[in-house]
Structures are given as structure tokens and as C-alpha cells.
Amino acid sequence: MLQKQKTTKKIVSQQLPLILGKRAFGNIPKTPLKPLEGEFEKPEIITSTIPGPIGKRLIEDLGRIQEIRTIHFLVDFDRSFGNYVVDSDGNVLLDVFCHISSLPLGYNHPSMIKALRTRDAVQLAAHRPALGSLPNVSWGPKLHETLMKVAPEGLTRVFTCANGSEANENAYKTACMWYVNQRRGNKPFTDEEIQSCMLNKPPGTPSLSILSFEKAFHGRTLGALSTTRSKPIHKLDVPAFDWPVAPFPQLKYPLDQFVKENAEEEARCLSRTEEIIKSNKIPVAGMIIEPIQAEGGDRHASPDFFRKLRKIARDNGVAFIVDEVQTGVAATGNFWAFQKWGLDDQPDIVTFSKKSQIAGFFHREEYKMTAPYRNYNTWMGDPLRLLQFEVILNEINKDDQAMLRNVNITGNYLQDSLKELAKKYPHLMKDVRGDGTFIAFDSPTVETRNSIVNAIKLNGVELGACGDQSIRFRPSLVFAPKHASQFLDIFESTISKLK
Amino acid sequence: MLQKQKTTKKIVSQQLPLILGKRAFGNIPKTPLKPLEGEFEKPEIITSTIPGPIGKRLIEDLGRIQEIRTIHFLVDFDRSFGNYVVDSDGNVLLDVFCHISSLPLGYNHPSMIKALRTRDAVQLAAHRPALGSLPNVSWGPKLHETLMKVAPEGLTRVFTCANGSEANENAYKTACMWYVNQRRGNKPFTDEEIQSCMLNKPPGTPSLSILSFEKAFHGRTLGALSTTRSKPIHKLDVPAFDWPVAPFPQLKYPLDQFVKENAEEEARCLSRTEEIIKSNKIPVAGMIIEPIQAEGGDRHASPDFFRKLRKIARDNGVAFIVDEVQTGVAATGNFWAFQKWGLDDQPDIVTFSKKSQIAGFFHREEYKMTAPYRNYNTWMGDPLRLLQFEVILNEINKDDQAMLRNVNITGNYLQDSLKELAKKYPHLMKDVRGDGTFIAFDSPTVETRNSIVNAIKLNGVELGACGDQSIRFRPSLVFAPKHASQFLDIFESTISKLK
Q1: What is the pLDDT at residue B24?
Q2: Residues of chain B with C-beta less than 8 angstroms from the C-beta of A357
Q3: Which keywords describe this protein according to UniProt (chains A, B) (predicted)?
Q4: What domains does chain B contain, in order, with CATH numbers?
């Protein structure tokens, strides 16, 4: 096996133009979140490339059996801690991407490690119950204590599964079953339906559609992929359902300077959406939307837009599905990002995954299955991942939700500072936007964006790209103002050297 | 929380007509597999219903938030061991269903528990890496040491993911990408393809199909479900791709009495399959088939059928996908069930999940992605589940594959004994069939089948149903002749009381 390289404290100085303590970005705000004891103080880059020589060798070896062109570097979980990820070569990076937004408590959080060492956790890991038929004794009580404590108002039931794609796929099935059952008048299936469905023909497998929005991302399996509209490379050569796509507002920034234009843009998108629902040749059973289009480039719309969209869904008898797979679990400053909209009429279905570890969706009572086994699969989620969600939820709720307040304080500080930087470096960054620490900005071109992401990695920061020219921040919930300050110092030092 | 009820040794005698030691089924064969120390000696049923009162209360409570009509009982993992599952009320049942074939080493196998208590396992559980971009350092070496050691010949690469549905969905995408790329002459995507795919239109999202077989089961997400043909309740009201279905042989038993009829039936199915491929209005890019149709009722076909089918796929340029989700990992007496076919020309893609814990598919070199991010998702599997697969593989390989030999010895004994019983109780059971311990028989009606499954549960056996009137055996790989003997005693005692 591998021989691990010891991290050396010696820093290759030309690789790390870190100016800690310079405090270019005003006073660092206080956070109510207790600091993690024993966290690294700062990034340390000890190889001249990332991946370094050990990583390169291992990645080459992996390339004989798997795709490797998408790999950033290899993670040494044993040595990573808090907001700092350690790679195969002993480099320490500040991680503001966190495995595409799916690491809520950072690395090796003491509460998580403690919980996973228990007898309960080991047994849940050892056995994957067929949850739909043979759940573990604590499954129900744990669901009540965890997921149902954060269920959106009125969404009284929860379906669990493996990941975001599967959550959305099952949400679509649920929406279609609800839609057809209404039209069938809650009557039994007809013989014609029963026979035709086995041939994939209507009326049994009906011609129905799920509407999604330009630049949306809802997953990669064939149903989910039919609603994903972020990038051609995801979709090319794969059969898709002939489902409609509606425009999503392309807001202009800063928002306060484009109030009228943005309102008109949102009105245009709403009007076009309703037009599609009313005229689409394949009836629209449901629509799905992200509170912030993440993969598509962190595209936002106003709460007013979403309230009106929800009304359009309601008025037209279309299931309103909110995809919180990337936005959920506190990163935007609310537990669910859609809570910011101030809806009177809650969504019908809300899907989740990533930071929650356990995936699935909440739904209203009227979306309940009319017969057993309609939505079902072998594992139907994973109680080990529910146990992890319990740890995450406990951490979020500690000390009067100090972690959630930390997200807002850190997010505001980071966003304000990035806006200052955007004024100073307008040729490199624009349109800083976000909620909580769920922040992004645009570069003028994809090349500039990629230069920034690559250059800052060699200065000790793992940062994410999204959309065509956006950079996204997806730090953990333990990302505090001091980490933001450290990031900002490294970031300015990095971009100031770019043309 | 729950107060656990202590298992009492007192058995409600009228509930358990167990005649251990009677040895109605000849000499119990010897197995090379070492017995599990500390396993229960026999089932113990202490409540008059299953679920008992504790289970009923908990299930009712779960029913407020999830579907419960599909629940058999609640599992107490802490007290279950080996082949015996303990429920919420302290009942001990011999488990020959094993969470729909997904528990290869039974409950609390010492090697599995030991492995999951290690620092490595706890850290892999704590962090779900984005494996496509930021894999853990040991990911590549572990893949080489585990999955690649059992990769079918010529299938040099592996794609990992969450479960069987996702494995098949990604296999379909891979087949379609391969199919289109060939026709495109390995040239870059055209502008028309790039633009049309974002609207879910051809040529970018092409009109292509995946052929599957009557009674097939390949999963529940929309792509997978379009190939699933086992039961209407899985498909009703859910949109499906207009993909073709071919007949699967309906063999007559006993096989040696229907050689000619069965050969004709297989020839008919093959000929019809080729006809569909040649004439289907939507081109067939791939076909998928289970070595034994499991959910559809344990339907078998001969090795000759599969060899000819593979040739049809090859001759017509159709990707040949074998779904080993339920049949894989040693239960049929070969590591992969399809190995029994004696193919000269291996499948193009083989999918796996369930017993392997880690899911995914093996594929040939020529099915490699032509560009990064074509098949990708956030988690792309789970290194914790790969660690479990390593434990399972080590156990299978111990003592010159004693576990695999055990499966064959136990399976033959169980199947022969069931055939004897079928002669004695022809009004209750027929068509005993199987490979290894992957065995099934049919009841004359769905009602009889359900009576047997329900009655035997109260006598201490958890048994599975499949198809319309089949009973399936899906025990763990530690199910030994003595367990089979115990099962047979309870089984005969149960059915002898049925009409």
C-alpha cells in the first residue's frame, strides 16, 4: 500500500503568496460558532503541482479502469480536518467547494466521528435494510426526530432514497401518479391501463411531462436528465423525454440598479411558463425548480418570481416541486433556501440530498401512494445516512443555532468583501451574488474563470466552477469569518497576478 | 426510546411445529464452510402475530409519515446474527430472503463488524467524497484489489454508483453514447446536436431504444422503469420511453421432460428478438437481460439461449448488457450467474448492486467515455460500500472458496429436497428450479403462495415472494446445509397443514 508523505511545515514560498494578518477586508466579524480545536491554521502547499507526484501516479493507475479527466486531486481523509483538506501529497488546502456542497460539517468533525464509532452506527453500516419491507427498529422514531423536524410546513410525509437524481425521479413519479389519479377520479386502474403499461404505451404509461427551466440541473438518470438543461455534455447522445423547458430569469447586477429590467425579465419568464403549461401538446403534470440554479451558474430570481410561479402551478393543476438538493441544509442562511420566498402556499414536493447525506423528498398528504409498491425499491435510502443527518441537525441546532448564524455572518462578510474586490478587479470578476455562504461571481470568460480556479489551487484553495463562467463557493457550515478572511487574502493575492 | 423485550426461551408451542432432528430429507451434506460461532440454534416465535405488539405500534407511528403496507416486520440488528433475524418483539426467524438478496454474509458477520470498526471505515462513513473529482487516496488501489479482481474477462473498466437502478440507467447511457459515436464516426458533436439536445430533441438527444424482455425487472427510475416489465403496479401512470419488449422463454418443468418444447420456445423468443431489432422504428442501441429473471418470478433460460442472444446482439450492433443486480456475487454458485453460459464473446456491460453493496457496471474498453463529464454525478458510488465489498470478497475467497462451495452443496441439497416435496405436495408446489441457493418454486395460485409465505413466518421463517405465484430463496452465503435442513422441516410442517 501507499506510503504516506509526512506534511512538512516548510512552505515553498514562491508557491504561496499568503499575506495573513494583512486584513485587507475590514474587521473580521465575530461569530457565535465555537472554533474547531486543532484545525490547521492555514493552507500549506509543498508540491509544485497539484496533484503532486504521488497523486499523479495513483491517478494514472486509476485511469486504467475509470475516467480520470475530472479529478482535481486525491483526498487523504485521515489527515484532513475542519475546513482544510489534505491531498495525497500532503498539501493542505482551504476547502470552499466541499465535494460539490456535500460536506456540511467539514472533515472529521468530532461529533460525526464520535457518532460513527458507536455500536449503532457500525451495525447500520454493516446491514443495508430493505427499508420498505424490513426497516430497522429505530427507523421510524429517527425519521420523526430528524427529517420530520425540518419538514416544510404542510409537507407531512417523506420518501427516502439514495441521492438527488433518485429523489427527483421519484418526485416526478409521485407527481404523475397524483396527476393521473385526479383525472381518473380516484378510481381503480382500468384493464386497458394495466395492459398498455406493460408495453410502455398510453393510457397505462401516459404521455405526461415535467417542465423545467433553462440552465436547470436536476440529475443524470434518464428522467432527471430530461429536466436537466445546464450543459450539452450531460445530455448529448442520451434519449430524453420530449418535455418542455421554460426560461429562467437572467437578472442583471447590481440588482438595485436594474429593478425595472429585472422585473420585466421575471414577468417575461412567468408569462412564457404559463403559456407553455396551457399550450404544451404533452400535458404538464409537474414543474421542478431550484431556489438557486447551482450547476447552471448560480442563477437567482426574486422571491416575488417564485411566489408567482407557485401560483401559476396551483392555478393550472401542476405539481410544484422544489429541488433543494444543492441549496438545502442551512448553507443559504435558511434551513431550506425556498423559505426566503415567504410562500403562503407551500410547495407540493421538496427534494433533498447532498449535505443531508440521506436523500429523498417531503410531500403533501394528497401525494400519498394510492397502493403499496407504486414507489418502492430495495434500499429506499440508508439509515446510516439518516444517523449522519441527525448529527448534522444537532450541530446546526446547538447554542441557539449558532451554526446558522455563522453562515449568515460569514456569508455577508464574504459577499461584501467580494463586491469590494469586484470594483477593484472589474476585468476579472462581476455580478457577485448569493445567500448565506452560497455565493458566486462571474468571470468575463471561461478561460479567466479557469485560470483563477487553477491558480488559487496552487496557492492553497480548492474552489468550484459552475455554469459557463462562474465561480461558486460551497464551503461547509463550519466555515467562519476567519476562514473567509484567509480566503480573501489568498484570493486577492492570486488574482492581482492575473492579467 | 424503545424498551427492548428480552427474548425468552419459552416457545409458544402451537406456533412452532418444529420437528428438528427428524431429518426428513436424507443425510445432511457436509460443507467446507466453518460454522458461525454463537449463531442461534433455531427460530423462536414468542408473539402470536408478526409483527408483534411493539412492532405494530412502531409501524403505525411510521405510517403517519411513510408507506407501511409493504412492511413485513421491524428488524433489530443488534440482536440478529448469522442466518437469524430478530424482530422488534424478540421473535427469531430463519432468514432465507435477506433483504431482497442484499445481505451476503448474514447479520453481524464478525469480519464485517471488525472492518467497520476501523478508523478507515469510520472516516469513509463520515465523508462522502465526490468520487469523480475528489476521490479518497485508497479508491484506485481498492478498486484494483476488489472489483477488478472479479471483473468479467475483457471488461476492463468499471463505473461505480449508488444502486441497481442507477447502474442500469448509466449502462443505458453508456450504450447509447457508444452507439451514436460509432455512427458519428468518432467525430466531434455537431452544432445541431449541441443545440437540439438542450431542447430534448433529436439529433442531440436521439431517438434510441433499449430492448428488454417480458417479466424483466431493471429498476424504478424512469429510464430503468422503461425496461422493467414485471408488474403493472410498478409502471402505471408513469411516463415511459417507447422501447420494445421481446418475449422471454417460458420453460416447462421438469426440463428433461420438455426438451423439444423448451428448445422451440427459446428459438421462438430468439427469432422474435432479432425481428424486433431489425424492424423496430426506434433503433435499438442496447438490450438488457437478467441471467435469471428474479422479480418476474425466477424465470430461467438455457445457456444456449443466452449464447445465441449474445450473437444476435453482436450481429446487429446492439450493446449486450447483463443485469447481475440480483443474481451476482456467488449466490448462483458462480460469482456471476452469466458465467454458466460459457460465452466465447463476453457481454459488453455487466451491472451489479445488492450483495456487492457497491453498485455499478463493468464495461469493455470501447465503451469508454469520449469526453469527461459525460457520465458523472456527485457521489459516483461510495468507498464505504467498496470496503464492505472487500470484506465480502475476502470471505468468499477464504479456504479455497469454501463459501462458494457451500452455496453449491447447500443449494443442491435444498433444491433436491424441494423437488421431493413437490412430488409429495403437487397441489401446493411445482416447477422447483434454481442455481446454487438461488432457488424458487411456483404455487398453483397467488393465494396459495401468499398463504405459505404468511404461515411459515409464524413458524419462524422469513421467505420471499416473486412473480405472480413464485416463492424465492435468497439466503445469505453463510446459509449452510443445516439451515436448509431446518428450513425443510419447518416448511413441510407448515405446508402439510395447508389445504
Answers
A1: 55
A2: 128
A3: Aminotransferase, Pyridoxal phosphate, Transferase
A4: 119-389 (3.40.640.10)
